[in-house]
Amino acid sequence: MYMIIIGCDYKREYIEKYGEHFNEKLAEFAIRHLKNVDGTNHRWSMEDIIEAFKREKLSLPDKESLHDLHYLANMLYSDWYPEAMITEPVILKAARKYLEDPDGFKGMIFLVWIYKMKKKGVEIPWKEMID
Which tops the pLDDT comparison, 115 or 85? Predict the structure, then answer.
């Protein structure tokens, strides 16, 4: 059972299809709404992250969480680089550890992001996010 099957029918359909996780389209939508504290327009593509994980010898999460990682790495960069997290490998390692957090729960990144969007008044075009 999912934690938030509320709201519009397309949101419900999205969650039934993908669970409480980002798919590629939703991750891209979420990443476009990030503002980098360093003033840059830096964005990692999924391919950039996969290559960096290989280079750093980090294991990738399961397929279900791959786009959660895509959003999360970009969010951490956006919020913490370069002051609190001074290198890109540190950000990627932190993103991986965040996904493995024993205090967390499945779908946590997705649910927190939805809450943020709601509080900011950003409408999520759920219908467009479903393949």
Answer: 115
Write the DSSP string, 90-120.
HHHHHHHHHHT-TT--TTHHHHHHHHHHHHH
Residue 120, token pair as written in the block: 């900011």
The residue assigned the tokens 């956006």 is 78
- Torsional class of 32: left (φ above 0), alpha (ψ -120 to 50), beta (otherwise): alpha
Report the C-alpha gap between 41 and 62 in whole angstroms.
28
Tell which residue, 57, 85, 55, has the closest CA to residue 73: 85
Q: Domain coordinates of the chain in residue numbers?
A: 9-129
Q: Tokens standing for 87?
A: 């290198």
Residue 37: phi and psi, rounded to 5, are -65, -20
Distance CA 65, CA 21 (A): 7
Quote the pTM value.
Answer: 0.89
Residue matched to tokens 């946590």: 108
Residue 8 pLDDT? 73
**Range of 29-33, 40-44, 105-109 with top mean pLDDT:** 29-33
Distance CA 110, CA 32 (A): 15
